[in-house]
């Protein structure tokens, strides 16, 4: 039999964005506990570390390690990074192998890295270890990733205290400031934009009109792919087989499968499998799955129209001289929610993904960088998104933001 993931792995991998569905209980954000040591543990405010890679983010934020791996399907690296006050990178889709990762949504899953700083993610011994352990993409894919953004990199020096950003065009997507966005998040983002503007960067409003449909499309596509991928865990070739209850008819394979999958999958995983199975049925396929794929293509087109650098994945890419080099927006609609709040129930956990899923649907590189504290004293993250393959540029701008942020508001 093939080695199968534990129930905890599957539940964590498919949980919503607050990491509350693990059989071990919710992952508690360590940020407050590090800064309020005088408060008894039982009286400290328990907030979410984000999901689904919240365990990795919490370990880094608590000082248990310098960096950690995570998997990002719709924001599962960037959102925990924002909530915990650390750096989280989702690379361009396809540039890092997913070998060894339990497949959830194959067209979205990315291996990412969470670290205390951009340098930790990018250049430390841990990063080089990742490069050795995780086979890179094919030489052809690597060559295509060398987009013309490299010419812009040569004019930037993130190591300088005051780098010259006069050649950088930063797009501010209007759709990433919805009514649900907390006002203190907007204040923190404005401070970052003011710092970048003072270094010469051009701030340009852009529109990505398909963004409001991204969340719905994402959950249809992700659930459908999860339904297909997780169907293999039937207790026969994959997964742990559970004993049938006394008196159950063992001659019917369906009983064996149903019992094993009911015991082996948590409630959230079962919910997504059922939603995905429905989306793939003959009656619903056109109205749900195909429609979601059409929206996904529109989202990709929106991004390609916004960037100055052409998408190297296109057969006939053409540059857009009026486009921008990177996009900058809030990583989350709010700071880490309280685990006992309304944000941790109902549709709240799903709405947390609204800022991160568009880049996932388009397969673009994105990094969440700490940008100070909100009015409630908890970390705020800003996301830098680039064209496919421009991972180095995204990290470079992330480092500039990191260096220009107020060190007193950092939690390392």
From TrEMBL:
<dbReference type="GO" id="GO:0005739">
    <property type="term" value="C:mitochondrion"/>
</dbReference>
<dbReference type="GO" id="GO:0032543">
    <property type="term" value="P:mitochondrial translation"/>
</dbReference>
<dbReference type="InterPro" id="IPR023631">
    <property type="entry name" value="Amidase_dom"/>
</dbReference>
<dbReference type="Pfam" id="PF01425">
    <property type="entry name" value="Amidase"/>
</dbReference>
<dbReference type="InterPro" id="IPR036928">
    <property type="entry name" value="AS_sf"/>
</dbReference>
<comment type="similarity">
    <text>Belongs to the amidase family.</text>
</comment>
<dbReference type="InterPro" id="IPR000120">
    <property type="entry name" value="Amidase"/>
</dbReference>
<dbReference type="GO" id="GO:0030956">
    <property type="term" value="C:glutamyl-tRNA(Gln) amidotransferase complex"/>
</dbReference>
<dbReference type="GO" id="GO:0070681">
    <property type="term" value="P:glutaminyl-tRNAGln biosynthesis via transamidation"/>
</dbReference>
<dbReference type="GO" id="GO:0050567">
    <property type="term" value="F:glutaminyl-tRNA synthase (glutamine-hydrolyzing) activity"/>
</dbReference>
<feature type="domain" description="Amidase">
    <location>
        <begin position="45"/>
        <end position="394"/>
    </location>
</feature>
<protein>
    <submittedName>
        <fullName>Amidase signature domain-containing protein</fullName>
    </submittedName>
</protein>
<dbReference type="InterPro" id="IPR020556">
    <property type="entry name" value="Amidase_CS"/>
</dbReference>
């Amino acid at each position: 039999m093939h080695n199968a993931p534990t129930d905890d792995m599957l539940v964590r991998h498919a949980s919503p964005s607050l990491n509350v569905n693990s059989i071990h209980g919710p992952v508690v954000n360590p940020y407050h506990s590090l800064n309020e040591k005088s408060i008894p543990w039982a009286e400290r405010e328990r907030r979410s570390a984000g999901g689904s890679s919240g365990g990795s983010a919490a370990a880094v934020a608590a000082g248990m390690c310098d960096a950690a791996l995570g998997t990002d399907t719709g924001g599962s690296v960037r959102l925990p990074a924002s909530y915990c006050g650390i750096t989280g990178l989702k690379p361009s889709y396809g540039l890092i192998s997913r070998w060894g990762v339990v497949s959830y949504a194959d067209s979205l899953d990315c291996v990412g890295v969470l670290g205390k700083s951009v340098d930790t993610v990018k250049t430390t011994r841990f990063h080089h270890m990742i490069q050795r352990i995780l086979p890179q993409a094919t030489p052809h894919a690597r060559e295509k990733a060398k987009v013309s953004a490299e010419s812009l990199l040569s004019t930037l020096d993130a190591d300088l205290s005051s780098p010259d950003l006069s050649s950088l065009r930063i797009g501010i997507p209007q759709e990433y400031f919805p009514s649900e966005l907390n006002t203190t998040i907007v204040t923190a983002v404005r401070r970052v934009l003011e710092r970048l503007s003072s270094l010469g960067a051009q701030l340009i409003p852009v529109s990505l009109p398909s963004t409001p449909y991204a969340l719905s499309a994402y959950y249809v596509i992700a659930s459908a792919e999860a339904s297909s991928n997780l169907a293999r865990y039937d207790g026969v070739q994959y997964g742990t087989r559970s004993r049938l209850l006394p008196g159950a008819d063992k001659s019917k394979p369906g009983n064996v499968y149903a019992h094993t999958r009911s015991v082996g999958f948590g409630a959230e995983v079962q919910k997504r499998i059922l939603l995905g199975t429905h989306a793939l049925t003959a009656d619903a396929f056109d109205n749900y799955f195909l429609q979601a794929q059409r929206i996904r293509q529109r989202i990709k087109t929106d991004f390609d129209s916004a960037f100055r650098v052409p998408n190297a994945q296109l057969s006939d890419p053409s540059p857009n001289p009026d486009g921008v080099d990177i996009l900058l927006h809030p990583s989350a609609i709010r700071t880490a929610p309280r685990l006992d709040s309304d944000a941790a129930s109902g549709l709240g956990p799903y709405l947390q993904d609204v800022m991160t899923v568009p880049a996932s649907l388009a397969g673009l590189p994105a990094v969440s960088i700490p940008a100070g504290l909100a009015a409630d004293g908890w970390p705020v993250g800003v996301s830098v998104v680039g064209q496919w393959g421009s991972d180095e540029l995204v990290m470079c701008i992330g480092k500039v933001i990191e260096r220009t942020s107020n060190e007193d508001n950092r939690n390392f």
